[in-house]
Amino acid sequence: MNNNNHKVLFACSEISPLIKTGGLADVCASLPIALRKSDTDLKVALPGYKSVLEQFENTRFICMLDLPLGAVAVCCAQFENTDLLLICHPVFSNRAGNPYMSDDDRGWPDNPMRFALFSQAVTELAINPAYLDWAPDLVHCHDWQTGLVPALLALHNPRPATVFTIHNIAYQGNIMHNHYVELGLPAAIFHANGLEFWGQASYIKGGIAYADRVNTVSPRYAAEIQTDAFGNGLDGLLRSRRERVSGILNGIDTDEWDPATDTHLPANYSADDLSGKNKNKAALQKQMGLPQQPETPLFGVISRLAEQKGIDVIVDAVEQAETLEFQLIVLGSGETDLQNRLYNLQQKHPQHVAIKIGFDETLSRLIEAGSDVFIMPSRYEPCGLNQLYSLRYGTLPLVTDVGGLADTVINYDNNPDEANGFLIKEASPDSLTEGINRALQLYTDKPVWQQLQHNGMAAHFSWDISAGLYLQLYTSAIGDAAVANEQIRHAKLTG
Ligand code: ADP
Predict the structure, then answer these.
(1) C-alpha separations of 146 from 76, 314, 326 in Å
(2) Helices 275-287 and 361-370, axial angle in degrees (round to 10)
(3) What is the pLDDT of residues 88-99, one digit of tens each?
(4) 346-397: per-residue pLDDT in tens?
């Protein structure tokens, strides 16, 4: 990995295990650790959510910031040997639970204000070195919650470089224009080449339009979002910036996710000795109330219950099966309709289907370890982490041929030396049924099955390579920002 010694302010809305709703949290935890190994001088900014503050006995007060949307206190905590800058304000610290949604699955109505406030705080810390006695060369922003940062920074000269990473382009942070005006956000960035998006203001568009470099979390998804089918209305803008847009595959924290050492598991195992995997399967079947049959193929799912993830496709495929020759375990939380459909399926097939609604880290690891196959029939998938965890845990992924799934799963097609799972053409019940049947057929061929398990467990999805690619991206962005700063300075002088 290059040793570039960049100073980087990392701005994100979740970090595992402090606060997590999905893969964003895993990436924002593990990428900084990998970057620090290359001596990147990194600080991480995170909203000071109630549940996060409760996890630290000591935080150090750094400064107050008097921002257009209100005053915030910046407190520093140590997390994984990194300065974690907690942006504290009652809109974060007075509210328990999910960072974006209430218990009835609706977004908090003040989210536009909350994440504009967070973005203003990040911008202020990035521009004014006096607060931290530190001046970042670059601010790395993640998803719509921080999309305003590159736009707000563009109003300053000189400014640090910006990288904006899209983890999911479907979540955009769009607000009505009158709401934008009420929040007092700058008119100078509300125009067709800025935040304006079909008359609304789009936070994610701020990141895409203004960042020096834009990337997403797999090469395939980077290409897909530049098409009408996957771009969610932003494909034209992305195409117009294609020289600045790239894809870098997410890594996983291979220490944190290791079946040989995972303390959540009843039995540890490795590629050399997979016997512990069977014990996890038995424990999982028992915990979920299914018959403990070692020879029955067990299909696992861990997912947000959202249209993206094709949970309806799983239900449809199981409903249309004449007989069930496998067991299915689903852990998930999200849309009520999907929860109900899953419960109905469980009621209809109590010997074969077991559902757990909720967010449960320990059970999720047991599902990764105890299942034979992990199903992920996503309609789109920016990167996907669960298929990577599955590969590492010797569980063959059965996934749609999209996004990061296509970049990481090698389909079995009489190629036992390379394959590590099963790809299906599309997120439809027929495609999934066809994939399930292929998996069931191969399950009877134990030597080939084990070869695929070994192929997956030997694959390298650690952050080493991807963190190196991020360092290269940072260097490019810093070069771009230097040019932009100089152009603006020159224009002012001559203007
Ligand atoms: P996304 O970020 O789109 O939800 P990813 O596959 O990238 O999907 O990451 C999902 C992460 O969240 C994984 O670490 C997965 O194990 C975890 N996860 C999702 N739902 C649950 C749940 N109900 N309980 C525990 N972990 C979950």
Answers:
(1) 19, 33, 43
(2) 130
(3) 999 999 999 899
(4) 999 999 999 999 999 999 999 999 999 999 999 999 999 999 999 999 999 9
Residue entry with tokens 């299915």: 328
Q: Is the pLDDT of residue 104 over 60?
A: yes
Rg of the chain, C-alpha, whole Å: 23
In this structure, the dihedral spanned by the alpha carbons of residues 117, 119, 120 and 124, taken in order and rounded to 10 degrees, is 140
Residue-wise DSSP of 48-87: --HHHHTT-S--EEEEEEEETTEEEEEEEEEETTEEEEEE
Ligand 1 atom nearest the C-alpha of 376 is: 6
pLDDT digits 0-9 by tens, 227-253: 999 999 999 999 999 999 999 999 998
Q: Nearest CA to 72 among 147, 123, 127?
A: 123
Beta strand 82-88 with 70-79 is antiparallel
Round to the nearest angstrom and report the end-to-end CA distance of the chain.
43
Residues 6+ apart with CB under 8 A from 340: none
Mean pLDDT, residues 55-77: 97
Helix (H, G, I), strand (E, B) or coil at 220: helix
Q: Does the beta carbon of 296 lie inside 6 Å of ligand 1? A: no
Model pLDDT for residues 132-188, shown as the tens digit of each residue:
999 999 999 999 999 999 999 999 999 999 999 999 999 999 999 999 999 999 999
CA of 15 to the centre of ligand 1 (A): 13
Q: Which residues of 109-136 are buried (b: 16+ CB within 10 A; e: fewer)?
A: eebbbbbbbbbbbbbbbbbeeebbeeeb
CA nearest neighbour of 138 among 212, 241, 205: 212
> Quick one: pLDDT at residue 4?
64
300 CB near ligand 1 (under 6 Å): no
Q: Is 456 in the pocket of ligand 1 (CB under 6 A)?
A: no
CB 8 within 8 A of CB 42: yes
H runs (alpha helix) in 211-274: 219-224, 235-240
State the pLDDT at residue 251.
93
Domains of the chain, with CATH numbers?
Answer: 3-251+463-494 (3.40.50.2000), 275-458 (3.40.50.2000)
